[in-house]
Design brief:
- This protein folds into two domains: 234 residues, Phosphoenolpyruvate-binding domains (TIM Barrel), CATH 3.20.20.60; 82 residues, PK beta-barrel domain-like (M1 Pyruvate Kinase, Domain 3, Beta Barrel), CATH 2.40.33.
- The strands form two sheets. Strands 1-2-3-11-12-13-14-15 form an eight-stranded parallel barrel, surrounded by five helices.
- α3 runs parallel beside α5.
- By secondary structure, it is α/β, with parallel strands linked by helices.
- The protein is built from 14 helices and 15 strands.
């Protein structure tokens, strides 16, 4: 029997979804930025790891890059919103069996975690679960006192400064724009290429707390809490775009629920007015290794064909060891012109 040759895969079927690339210490070099620019639909800056001066420095650097390369892309400034992060804290591989959480910005002790969010100390109760570092660490609150929370370590893992912390099953509400987020907006609002993303969106009403400050700049809703999943259509109508962010959402809903949630969002996409992107360990293997796994490559293909408008890379390009290889992979995965 004569074997038939396999026809070439059409360029449209080789296409990977557009990528939003997060910038950080691993991608601050001018040569690396020049490699990322051709494969980036947009860049992202996580304001949680910057002060206003640092944000201005990044925007100046990118503006110079755009001028030198003759091409510009939007830059998404990611605001914390209701998302909490711990303060300055030693980098440790594991926590003690019991820890205390205290208000403040800094701690030098491994058993004392600083949390600069007064709302946590108002709302926390014994029995609540706290997830840190994308659920790599889980704490159970045992006691709540005056400006001090005692907790037992249920799931142990690494922790370092500025990692996320949230309460399950109900994160704190977004009640007002924080001084920190306001300072980030003030530092960037004058750049016409800037867009904004809001973390831990709960409902369409959250957009109303930001719109008056943004002067027409685009606003993106990050879907990271279970309450938001029940109101996707309303959030879509109030924001300009949405991102399904599987890191914190996995901590809130449970990792086992991510598949059904992603499928549910994919079925809603045709009825949404605005684009929806997928975030969270999209090419996680490339944070540590120069090639993606076969599973990641197949997943990327399926994401593009399930209706998502694109993907958001985080650690892969912000702190990864192989940022140039990520750029090379995205370039190879792009359609031929």
């Amino acid at each position: 029997m004569k074997l038939q040759s396999t026809p070439p895969i059409p360029a449209s079927d080789r296409q990977s979804p557009p990528a939003v690339l997060t910038l950080g210490p691993a991608s601050c070099d001018a040569a690396i930025l020049a490699q990322l620019l051709p494969v980036a639909e947009r860049f992202r800056l996580n304001s949680a790891h910057l002060d206003p001066g640092g944000l201005v420095g990044w925007l100046d650097r990118l503006e110079a890059l755009f001028e030198a390369e003759g091409r510009s892309v939007p830059v998404v400034v990611d605001l914390q919103g209701a998302k909490m992060r711990i303060g300055r804290f030693p980098s440790i591989p594991r926590l003690p069996g019991r820890v205390e959480l205290v208000p403040g910005d800094r701690s030098e002790r491994a058993d004392t975690i600083p949390v600069p969010h007064p709302g946590l100390f108002r709302h926390a109760a014994p029995g609540d679960r706290l997830f840190l570092n994308d659920a790599r660490v889980e704490l159970e609150i045992e006691r709540v006192g005056d400006e001090r929370i005692g907790a037992r370590t249920v799931r142990n893992g690494p922790l370092e400064a500025s990692k996320g912390i949230n309460r399950a099953p109900h994160p704190l509400p977004f009640e007002a724009l924080s001084d920190r987020d306001a300072s980030m907006i003030d530092a960037s609002i004058g750049r016409p290429f800037v867009e904004y993303a809001l973390s831990f969106v709960r409902s369409a009403q959250d957009a109303g707390l930001l719109r008056p400050r943004l002067g027409g700049h685009r606003l993106i809703a990050k879907l990271e809490r279970t309450e938001a999943i029940a109101h996707v259509r309303e959030i879509d109508a109030a924001f300009d775009e949405s991102w399904l962010c599987r890191g914190d959402l996995g901590a809130q809903a449970g990792v086992g629920e991510l598949g059904p949630i992603q499928r549910r969002i994919a079925t809603l996409i045709p009825s949404l007015r605005n684009p929806c992107y997928l975030a969270g360990q999209v090419l996680e293997h490339m944070t540590h290794f120069p090639e993606p796994t076969r599973s990641e490559v197949v997943h990327l293909y399926e994401v593009a064909r399930s209706g998502f408008a694109g993907v958001v890379l985080s650690d892969e390009t912000a702190i990864g060891r192989h940022v140039a290889e990520v750029a090379g992979f995205l370039a190879r995965a792009a359609p031929e012109e």
